[in-house]
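Incident log entry.

Two folding requests arrived from the same account within the same minute. Monitoring flagged them as a possible duplicate submission, but the sequences differ. Recording both here for audit purposes.

Request one:
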Amino acid sequence: MAEAAAITHRRVLKIAVPIVLSNATVPILGVVDTGVVGQIGLAAPIGAVGIGAVVLSALYWIFGFLRMGTVGLTAQAIGAGDKGEVAALLSRALLIGLGGGVALIALQVWLFAAAFAVAPASPEVESLARDYMQIRIWSAPAAIAIFGITGWLIAAERTRAVLVLQLWMNGFNILLDLWFVLGLDWGVSGVAFATFLAEWSGFAVGLWLCRAAFRVPDWRNWAQVFDKVHLARMAMVNRDILIRSILLEAILLSFMFLGADFGDTPLAANQILLQFLYITAFGLDGFAFSAEALVGQAMGRRRRDLFRRAAIVTSGWGLVIVVVLAMVFAVFGGLLIDLMTTAPLVRAEARLYLPWMCLAPLIGLAAWMFDGIFIGATATREMRNMMFISAAVYFGAVFLLAPVFGNHGLWAALMISFAARGVTLGLRYPSLERSVV
């Protein structure tokens, strides 16, 4: 477990860098999945894996609150020196993850039917996608429980372990992809079996990485694990994070859907430029996660000085990252666009809106970093309420700007929503800091 120590730049980087490296491995797996299926030489298998992966990712995303909620609560227990509660929190997270996965397995028929009702595909693609999902869904308990394991490890500042876990799962998945699809010719089912085995093996590796918790008897002290007060607090934190995440997802999805109203070319340009936004998120995640862990521990120790220091140092590094990214997008953005598409019209269109992506990291910094700070402090009610305000501001801005300025108005509304999140959370920060007593 992390010990009480000064919050230095080196300590922040030690937490952040493995997270950034871990994030960098995520797109590689998607490329390999698509690449090995592409060797079959048919379009349907590629589409089936793409649709199946999107549907399952959306279902698993519902439980994304488990990582964030576990970080804040565990970091505070670590800060308070409550080893028993730290161990019990891991058990609670595992039970929620495993239970959530079992629920998805039980409901799979209705969930898959609903997914294809919303996004219909050709009979061939739908049949292959169902085969894919019906295999992968059986690793849902492992995949969701890993959210809890990851949050617990981040809270303990063990982000190298998170990197090891990610490298193991993705590396094992890639090897199995190559064997099952190219070697054994299992096609789409081979990709699904590879992920199924990789996720369950990742769960096993995750448990091994958390083995310190299992040396504390409280991990199986069911009276503590199911303590009503602790369960109620965990439920409240997770509920607020879920609502906040749904609102954020509504903003991003509406951005894509509304962009479609301006035509296929602007829609394609928006999709390409959103990849720049994801790159920004991957870069900032490491420092936002550092804030979650260090702010949470300071909260548990009731040390306002450490709380402020954690917020300042992590945000300072976040500022460095966004300035670098803004410069990279400004200088190399055109080249990155050209790498992502060969369509001349889409290239030209994306360049029109590229300045928004140069501004996005700078405008979004406060929102990302305050998210990490408020998660660490488990001030999730404030996060939820400020997200309601930000969503209302966004949709109001869309209503006013998009009819007049078209796609530029849509991008402006998205930037305004980022600014609104940062400003509203920033206004709540002083009272949050004063609450550390």
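Request two (distinct sequence, not a duplicate):
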Amino acid sequence: MSTPFDEEAFRTEPEARALVSRIHELLREELRGEPVSLMEVCGTHTVAISRAGIRSLMPDGLKLLSGPGCPVCVTPLSEIDRAIGASTLPDVILTTFGDMMRVPGSQSTLEKERAEGADVRILYSPLQAIEIAEESPESQIVFVGVGFETTSPTIAATVVEAARRGIGNLSVFPFFKTVPRALDMLARVPGRPLDGYICPGHVSAIIGSGAYEPIAREHNMPCVVTGFEPLDILAGIVMLLEQAASVRAGGNAKVETQYSRAVTREGNLAAQAVIADVFQECDAEWREIGTIPMSGHEFSERYRAFDARDRIDVDVPAPAGPSGCICGEIMLGQKLPTDCPLFATRCTPREAVGPCMVSTEGACAAFYKYDRETTEVP
């Protein structure tokens, strides 16, 4: 069992107190009290920030915004509906990670379809789909491929292994997204200034910190790859504020790595190689955000036979999103979860309306669990 987080012990820890003091000092003196907005673009960071109460430690004028770093949250309705439709077909065994089960589509969820008899199975590793395919040769085994560069290598490796074994009844919905193109898009949105990115540690371990260098260079946007412990996050904020002060004084932004114990500039070359072998870049739709050019992965020609979109014939209804949900604005850093009129009223983790409340890494779920006592709820 994991040890419960002791927020009071963290707040009184000397290193934490020193980092928080430095954050206040930087905003007050180096940045002259002018507003600063930093965005974390990883759902694990979002949860860690809320769990540790880090927002409540920040000085007035420093905003920590949640970006589109929850893969379940950015999966569009059309893709959710396609997976749900496939699950209802009589010869299909749909396999998925558990966080997809309760994500609402236009008319249903995978959880509801399973309750009504659909064969939907939760996997802990995509390699389990190969075992199911070998055990059930009369069925089509479909894996719902959702995730960023952290999960796509293991799914790509699964496809390579299935091809090696000659398994013909396994296919994958390639609903993958990539992080750097999304960060580039966010940096281009007019009227919403950002002063720095808290870059994701897990994704960066795969793609390397060098993947963010074009963003820092082209947008003069400070980027710091940060670990997930509370002290990591505080140290990353200090590094970003130091860069922000330099940029406002006419300096150039750069990419720094606070999480050097796990992340290198080059990243995991073996994981990158299997991604490049199995997938190719493509335009991708992000839920409530729109299409971001070359921000997704689809199958390369060599592995196109594993594309479930070609193999599984599904009628997908016209997407019908929940009325009143502002998940899109939350994922763009334009609003906080507590700005949503549905938050903690119609929309709760038990009865979620939008995807940001369904996923454990969603901003709304994190705010609901950890921040409601310190943030005004409409």
